[in-house]
């Protein structure tokens, strides 16, 4: 089965979907509301499951060329610098870290330019027996189905899932930044540091830079400061290096503030010839580092069902049955993980458990097949175009 899909959203999820559809011989029209294609945000890491999805999309080599191995999962520290668990030289590093813009460029390079439409904000989606019509940017686009890959505030979901609950605040907020690391002290191979209910993550990214993210409790959404960089530094200025100097070295304009939200579970990802993926379907807490990874999985599975099932309706039903339970289970786990590290008491309990855990057991859990999430294997896409 081949056809034509309208993909709403030109971020990582939308581009991954377009790449997957192209590989199975489908055409796609990608609608992005921004005036130009790009990726906002700072950094991310991708686990083995996501890297397998990138391989199935045919862009693994390009992705690895712009990614950097990170030891963040292996280096767990207290705010005074003490290591609770530490990576050894030669230990495997299953995670690959990216600047979001670098991974976005890799996917963008695999999508035909004439498939991409910017300044195309979706205002309506209509369905009939023959397919879907999407109104965007003053134009109408017609296709066999529409894929909502337009993020946590999805226009497709808003129009076609009016009964869906809105995204909810999880009582936490984050500061994010990327900066050059030349001359900075301390371990910049990647780490997670906990203290006083705060958590700070460091990933190395390409071109001699590092990404950092500071997560802290914030019961009220939308609280902001005149100087967000100073507010972040005020919380961790006395922590071990490189934490304070990394934040000080970050240009003020490069510090991003975002509240942690999730999308309450949907009863279905499918409405007629419309289907959701990525944050539009299952926006989740970042605590398991799986938001983008599950988005890449979604894209591969959607393309596989469209390529191997006899009708679109059957394909979408199978996609929903395969993806929704896994996505929502991971979202629940991420929420629980975040809740455990969002208080001093929870962190002390976690630190005690880590100290009692033999290093061999810790390292076994960090193998590429060390947990069920990472063990996911993509279906093989029947490649019908180059």
TrEMBL record:
Record's keyword annotation contains Oxidoreductase: yes
GO MF assignments: monooxygenase activity
Key words, A-Z: Monooxygenase, Oxidoreductase
Compositional bias of kind Basic and acidic residues: 320-338
Domain FAD-binding: 5-332
Cited SUPFAM superfamilies: FAD/NAD(P)-binding domain
InterPro entries with a match to the protein in the record: FAD-bd (IPR002938), FAD-dep_Monooxygenase_BioMet (IPR050493), FAD/NAD-bd_sf (IPR036188)
Keyword Transport set for record: no
Region entry Disordered, spans: 320-343, 367-386
Protein name: FAD-dependent monooxygenase
């Amino acid at each position: 089965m081949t056809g034509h899909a309208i993909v709403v959203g030109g971020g990582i999820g939308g581009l991954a979907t377009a790449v997957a559809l192209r590989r199975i011989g489908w055409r796609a029209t990608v609608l992005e509301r921004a005036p130009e294609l790009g990726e906002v945000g700072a950094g991310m890491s991708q686990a083995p499951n996501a890297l397998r999805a990138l391989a199935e999309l045919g862009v693994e080599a390009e992705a690895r060329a712009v990614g950097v191995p990170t030891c963040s999962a292996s280096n767990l520290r207290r705010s005074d610098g003490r290591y609770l668990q530490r990576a050894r030289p030669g230990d495997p590093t299953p995670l690959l870290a990216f600047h979001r813009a670098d991974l976005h460029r890799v996917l963008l390079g695999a999508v035909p330019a004439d498939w991409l439409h910017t300044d195309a904000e979706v205002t309506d989606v209509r369905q009939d027996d023959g397919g879907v019509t999407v109104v965007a940017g003053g134009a109408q686009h017609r296709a066999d189905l529409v894929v909502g890959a337009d993020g946590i505030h999805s226009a497709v979901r808003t129009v076609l899932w009016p009964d869906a609950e809105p995204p909810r605040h999880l009582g936490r907020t984050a500061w994010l930044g990327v900066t050059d690391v030349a001359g900075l002290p301390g371990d910049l191979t990647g780490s997670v540091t906990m203290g006083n209910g705060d958590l700070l993550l460091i990933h190395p990214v390409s071109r001699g830079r590092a990404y950092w993210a500071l997560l802290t409790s914030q019961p009220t959404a939308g609280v902001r400061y005149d100087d967000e960089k100073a507010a972040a530094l005020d919380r961790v200025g006395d922590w071990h290096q490189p934490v304070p100097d990394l934040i000080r070295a970050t240009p003020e304009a490069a510090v991003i503030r975002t509240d942690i939200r999730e999308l309450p579970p949907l009863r279905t990802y499918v409405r007629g010839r419309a289907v959701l993926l990525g944050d539009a379907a299952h926006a989740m807490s970042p605590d398991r580092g799986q938001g983008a990874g599950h988005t890449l999985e979604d894209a591969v599975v959607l393309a596989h069902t469209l390529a191997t099932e006899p009708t679109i309706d059957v394909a979408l039903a199978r996609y929903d049955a395969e993806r929704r339970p896994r996505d929502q289970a991971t979202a629940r786990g991420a929420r629980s993980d975040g809740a455990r590290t969002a208080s001093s008491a929870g962190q002390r309990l976690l630190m005690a458990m880590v100290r009692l855990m033999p290093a061999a057991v810790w390292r076994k859990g960090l193998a590429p097949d060390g947990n069920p999430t990472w063990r996911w294997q993509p279906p093989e896409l029947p490649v019908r175009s180059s």
